[in-house]
């Protein structure tokens, strides 16, 4: 019989809900947040783009930088819920080649398998 009790050592997943326009990125808040979480041994992240209306190349650069930060520590960074205009930018720049992009949050969560702890953080631009 399979043990279905929660494993308390199961690492948490942090869902970061982005809001606004991710352009001309000069505010280090998101980068500092991810760095702080990585220092606390959190390695699994989902960036939710539901409320992102537009992203430019600087915003894409930030996402790539965050992915590099998590990759160095054997972590995962998934993207979900990009709106049509954001999805178009992702397509034009070939972002689908670099990231797993899920159309729904539930799909992104399933990517991590069994999930016992989820923390949600909102970041407004």
Largest sheet: 5 strands, parallel
CATH class: Alpha Beta
H/E series, N to C? EHEHEHEHE
CA distance, first residue to last residue: 49 Å
Q: How many structural domains can be distinguished in the coordinates? A: 1
Mean pLDDT: 88
Q: What CATH architecture would you give? A: 2-Layer Sandwich
Q: What is the fourth-level CATH superfamily?
A: STAS domain
- Provide the β-strand percentage band: 25-35%
* Quaternary status: single chain
Instruction: List segments where confidence is low: pLDDT < 50 over at least 5 consecutive residues.
Output: none
The structural class is alpha/beta
The CATH topology assignment is: Transcription Regulator spoIIAA
The coarse overall form would be globular
Strand order of the largest sheet: 4-3-2-1-5
Count of helix runs: 4
The gyration radius over C-alpha positions equals 15 Å
* Extended strand count: 5
Helix percent band: 25-40%
What does this structure look like?
Helix 1 runs parallel beside helix 2 (57-72). The mean pLDDT is 88. The longest helix is centred in the middle third of the chain and has 16 residues, at 57-72. The protein starts with 12 loop residues before the first strand and ends with a strand. The protein has four helices and five strands, in the order βαβαβαβαβ. 26% of the residues are buried. Helix 1 links the parallel strand 1 (13-22) and strand 2. The chain has one domain (13-124): 2-Layer Sandwich (Transcription Regulator spoIIAA). It is globular and about 35 Å long. It has a five-stranded parallel beta sheet with strand order 4-3-2-1-5. With 125 residues, it is an alpha/beta fold. Helix content is 35%, strand content 29%.
